[in-house]
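Dear colleague,

As promised, here are the two records you asked about, laid out in our usual form so they can be pasted straight into your sheet.

NAME FIELD: protein one
SEQUENCE, THEN STRUCTURE:
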Amino acid sequence: MKGNKTDRLIRIASRLLTCPSGQISLTSLAEDFDVSKTVISDDISIIDRSIEQEGLGRIKVDRGRAGGASFVPLMSDDYRESFLSDISETLSHDDRLLPSGLIYYGDILFNPTYAWKLGLVLASDFYDKYPDVVVTSEVKGIPLGMATAQILGVPLAVCRFRNRASDGPAVCVHFATQTGDVRAMYMGTKQIVQGSRVLVIDDFMRGGSTASGMCQVVSEFKAELVGIGVFIASIEPIKKAVERYSSLLSLNMSGEGARVVPSSLYTRGLTS
């Protein structure tokens, strides 16, 4: 299926982008398109420059014996700032306000276009941590966790607040909420392997109790926590149940109404 150069570039790019973080053999590409590996390498360089210019990431090439290419998620600072600023503006509208200092953001997370880009941002932030699995909690954390896991090329494990028979055997941990109540969290025994490198993803953090519960789950499986990524973190309370996390957006309720801004606009000490 030799085809012309344009056709080959499009097809190679589609393979890389639909299998993010997964390595594709340069030899197999050369055989599939009936060209030399030198030609494929030139094609990869063109695709790499184009994707970098779009601000989505880079194409990493392994020059070893089994040489392969893979799409590495590295969203550019300009793309990230523009994207998160647009979401911040949308979420700062007064009609988003909910009781108890909350805002409505479900339509963002359950929109595949937004979810994929948010996953790309988080994957870019934690790519160099090399997680083996992404852990999140039901319900709104699932689309965000799935997008992040898909771009990192790893599975998603979901913590549930009620164990179902269809989930199979599970480990249960109990964690304290911000109000002092104690809740249970379940994780299927087949979802996390002992010694795995785990990235925790949370959709919203106020006191950090849910994230803390997920960290307890990671500990119960004798796995290694490599990071905590959060979509929106409330400025108050400043002291959270977890010590270190990285949030994309910050919610400030100190003035009239609610203001959501990219976390980088606030002192980093609030989210580190």
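NAME FIELD: protein two
SEQUENCE, THEN STRUCTURE:
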Amino acid sequence: MIARLAGTLIEAGADGAVVDVQGVGYAVLASSRTLAALPPAGGSVVLLTELQVREDAWTLFAFGSAAERDSFRALTGVQGVGGRVALAILSVLDPDELARAVSAGDKAMIARANGVGPKLAGRIAMELQGKLGSPALGAALGPAAARNGAAADALSALANLGFKPAEASAAVSAASDELGASATLDALVRLALRKAAK
């Protein structure tokens, strides 16, 4: 398994790049975001990677961040989403935007990527529910609640009870605003449950 490359960028194209690591050139595929962040040819690069082995090919995918790699892994776990389709999605949506789109069930947002139709976008939104929640947590709760660890735990508790992410985050946000930053987890969960039940 090749998990990381650190070397010199030889060239970058529309959908990938070649990185020289001690005399060996590794061809990698990457999202347009990762490619846009690369230095000019000859510059030093460090990329996280994911190796996919198939009968007919070994393909190395590269990422500029752990969040992007984690989103790629989640996406390729959905039936019908291969590595290239996952990169197309990550070229249009960064990990936070993808998490928010999945959390809200926004199929249209996911379908903006090349090669993703409404049916596949719906499957992605459904299968990844609750699996990409953490990057969007701060955005969902708002800055004050996100700083409060109890609010994050309360959100997780409501999600585990079966509340949809949007409902859970609205209830926890309202409870957080009412109780203030010093609220305990127990108090937050109780009030959030009452607010969600209304």
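A couple of things worth noting about protein two: Residues 165-179 form the longest helix (15 residues). DSSP finds eleven helices and five strands in the chain.

Best,
R.
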